Predict the structure of cyclin-dependent kinase.
Amino acid sequence: MERYLVMKEVGCGTFGTVWRAVHKETGEIVAIKKMKKNYYCWEECMNLREVKSLRKMNHPNIVKLKEVIREHNVLYFIFEYMECNLYQFMKDKDKSFSESEIRDRCFQVFQALAYMHQQGYFHRDLKPENLLISKDVIKVADFGLAREISSEPPFTEYVSTRWYRAPEVLLQASVYGPAVDMWAMGAIMAELFNLHPLFPGTNEADEIHKICNVIGSPSQNSWADGLRLADSIKYQFPQYPGIHLSRLIPSASEFAISLISALCSWDPLKRPTAAKALQHPFFKPCYYIPPSLRPRDTGISKTPPTVGMRGAPEHWSARRCSVGALPNNKHASNVSSSAARTSFKTGGTQTRLDTQQYQNYVPSERFEQTDLFAQPLYRPAERNYPVPAHLGRVVPRGSWDINEKPMIPMVSPHLVVADMAEKLANLTVNSGSQTVRKPPPPALKAGSWNFHAPYLNRACEIPPARGYQRKAVG
Ligand SMILES: Nc1ncnc2c1ncn2[C@@H]1O[C@H](COP(=O)(O)OP(=O)(O)OP(=O)(O)O)[C@@H](O)[C@H]1O
């Protein structure tokens, strides 16, 4: 770790604290995540979800894990550095994002998700804090809860931040899949339009109430399995007719509303896959048509292709973020005089793993597309959500029709349920509060610091409560 010079803390999560640092020799700016828990052998480290999943990911919209270092039983992840997270970015915004800004960012995230799901993983904790931004690029980060699609149920442990948690997870289904990421994306998309969360539940019961309030209580038609699931734990959904999303998100176009509605479907099987979402008409402007193939007077922009927005007139503002605007990364000496930095000096043996060897993604033929919807820029093979073998799940494909539900399940998942009735019944529904706190993290044993940097020793705090001004959702 002595190769890195630590500059400042940029984040603190459930599992670790993240620092901006600079590689002393190359001057490269990196993010170092120091895990709270101690790790006593490599095997344990290599079995971590974050390591196992990220080692396999190589995509322009997934944050790169550059190195894993274990030193004195402390585990460090070295990531590429990103300027800020999406939550910070939204918080600093004084006016709404334009639809094209939202489209561009979501398009990138859906590409990452399509890739990740195709690689056999789903994230399970998508939220604005885990989407990192640098200039026009957005990347998915924090694979601490990522799960292999093929892994054996039941999935019982803590999953995802409440506001973005899918209904099947709230109802403690023991089998679920990548559709939970799609639910979270629906909630995040809506939040990008409104700059406040769509379902800001104060506890799990309130979360379900808020969802019912917005999308209407589930019916036999919309989520028969969910009703069975609720029945089996003796939970009764509150009865709400729902509100048309266009009333709650007045600035969103019909296409945007159509996509958000599809993503926020009660039934996981009715949510589009990420690959399917990329083909939604909402993303039509993201597809580049070579000039030679354009009809003469379409008026389509001649903006050259870049990663991200293609042909869109607006750009995300290059705002400085409260956390760590990118410093001059020419050389470490540029940052060497600050008192608030330290070197990870240790006398111990350093063990490290270079993860580059696992990264095999090669972007290819990204802009040579001719068919707007049949051929996304990055087109992973469409992959169905997992289902226990005995159910033989089928995910239908087809074109989008915004007047219809986009996907019609042919086989419903069998949801095995833990006993949640009491838990849900005992929870208070509190919708009056204006400030919503981050749900408490699961208890973890903190690791110890092994290097000489007194200011690093302070207890890791839970990030400040989110102070969104909430609009009434009902
Ligand atoms: N590569 C990076 N570049 C810049 N900042 C980062 C990077 N990775 C993480 N961060 C910052 O640190 C915060 C916490 O990181 P991360 O989500 O990985 O930690 P965690 O302990 O797994 O959190 P969680 O409680 O969400 O599980 C992020 O929200 C982000 O603001």
Notes: Residues 299-398, 403-474 have pLDDT under 50 and may be disordered. The chain has three domains: 4-80, 85-291, 314-437.
